[in-house]
Amino acid sequence: MNKDSAWTAVAAAEWWIIDLDGVVWLSGTAIGDVGTAVETLRQQDRRLLFVTNNSAPTTAVLLQRLADVGIKATPEDLVTSAEAAASLLTAGERVNVLAEDGVAEALSARGVVMVEEPPYDAAVVGWTHHFDFDSVSRAADAARSSGRLIGTNEDPTHPTPTGLTAGSGAILAAVATASGVAPTVAGKPHDATVELIEARTGHGSRSVSMVLVGDQPGTDGKLAERLSVPFVLVDSGVTSPDTAVDHVPVCLRVPTFVALVAGLPSGDDGR
Fold first, then answer.
1. What is the CATH number of the domain that holds 258?
2. What was the pLDDT predicted at 205?
3. What pLDDT is recorded for position 158?
4. Could you give the CA distance from residue 15 to residue 45 in angstroms, rounded to a whole number?
């Protein structure tokens, strides 16, 4: 696909699947005038779904962060890896949780019981600052005794305004190594997230034009492959502009999400 065709394909998409960290913001700080960019898309009758592997914030916190950068949204506009992880469990199951409030909220909504003592049905691991040797050991014990380890995501790093920090994947790897249990990962690009996106957009059951915008080829790019939709890579997050990307198809590569929206062609194909 040449560059003109790529821009046309992106401009024609009905649904835009948009990552948050590294695309819309860095630790809540907007990457340019994202509010105006989103409003531009909505005025062109495009439908937006924000899909994040960050399992730490609650829905209310995410909605407030979006509002703070000028984006109006509802819970139906969000898919999180916390929600995806909870979808792998059933009401009444007992789990040990090494994660933040977003995971606790999603598990509670699902009717899952969070416990510190056995018996366990699973261990659930997500991104958190609040972990130490003892909490990793408890999660490993829960995974080992239940034979089940669920990770919200396996992102090795997390983008911030001052650089990359350790991501959920680093914590998950510690628990997996200590327990000897291979994790089932819920977030992008895995099945649980694919199923939530398809349920929200109708993709898979009918013809839906879609584009995915993200900063992480290993998650966002692979998710686009799973959905068979174009992937737009932005260089504002974990992938620096001088990093070559050849392991997933990249439809377009742009500096930022704002630059992407500003560069959309006008006319019939551009809505």
1. 3.40.50.1000
2. 64
3. 86
4. 9
Range of the domain at 202: 3-53+189-262
- Rounded Cα gap, residues 264 and 267, in angstroms: 10
Does the annotation count 19 as an active-site position? yes
Residue in 19, 155, 220, 235 annotated catalytic: 19
Residue 21 appears among annotated catalytic residues: yes
Percent of the chain at pLDDT exceeding 70: 98
> Cβ-count burial of 207 within 10 angstroms (0-12 exposed, 13-18 middle, 19+ buried)?
exposed
Q: With a threshold of 0.85, does the pTM exceed it?
A: yes
* Bridge-based pairing state of the strands 15-18 and 163-166: unpaired
Q: What are phi and psi of 210, to 5 degrees?
A: -150, 150
Task: Report the chain's terminal Cα–Cα distance, integer Å.
Answer: 20
Last residue of a domain, one of 136, 163, 185: 185
The Cα–Cα gap between 238 and 4 comes to 26
Is residue 3 predicted with pLDDT exceeding 90?
A: no
Q: Record the tokens describing residue 177, joined without a space.
A: 């190594």
Choose, from 4, 21, 132, 155, the residue flagged as catalytic: 21
- pLDDT number for residue 270: 53
pLDDT tens sequence across 212-257: 999 999 999 999 999 999 999 999 999 999 999 999 999 999 999 9
Asked whether 125 and 100 are in contact (CB, 8 A), the reply is no
